[in-house]
Design goal:
Elements: H1 27-42, E1 47-49, E2 59-62, E3 80-89, E4 101-108, E5 111-121, E6 123-129, E7 135-141, H2 142-154, E8 170-172, H3 173-176
Antiparallel strand pairs: 1-2, 2-3, 3-6, 4-5, 5-8, 6-7
Bound molecules: nickel (II) ion (NI).
Amino acid sequence: MTVRDILKMGDPRLLRQAQAVTEFDSDALHLLVSDMLDTMAAASGAGLAAPQIGVDLQLVIFGTNETNPRYPNAPLVPRTVLINPVITPLASDEGGITPVLEEDWEGCLSVPGLRGVVPRFACIRYTGFDQYGDPVDRTVQGFHARVVQHECDHLIGRLYPTRMRDLTRFGYTEVLFPAQAPDQDE
Ligand code: NI
């Protein structure tokens, strides 16, 4: 049960290509997952990637098993531990062949206080493993797909501002959304 420090943009450790996890169901891996869950909860995050706490491994966590009372209508993303992930963009509609990008606002615990509009694939399949080495294989869309792409970008050293196409839609949360409670960061 340890809340770890979250690295902020500018730290070179956020720019690394993370290493694959090779040993599952180990004490060290379970401890890392436990610390990441504590850290995400303490920061009210929607997701967290191991590089954000300085750990150079392909491991992300995201989602929650409870509805956030502040966002009762937010789509529920199940709490997930995803290791060595592979993302495949999919066509959103039946019969479509080209994956579609859609834009929406994102924040990041490593870029505190800011929000930006980021294009992401609307529909993806993601595969990988949980901390026990059991396979994960899901096809998802919308917010769930966005969170996964955001977190997995941390594993290749990408922060969301480097995905933005329109920097006029990048700014401070309190200025952009003065009337709203703060949204969750990823
Ligand atoms: Ni992030």
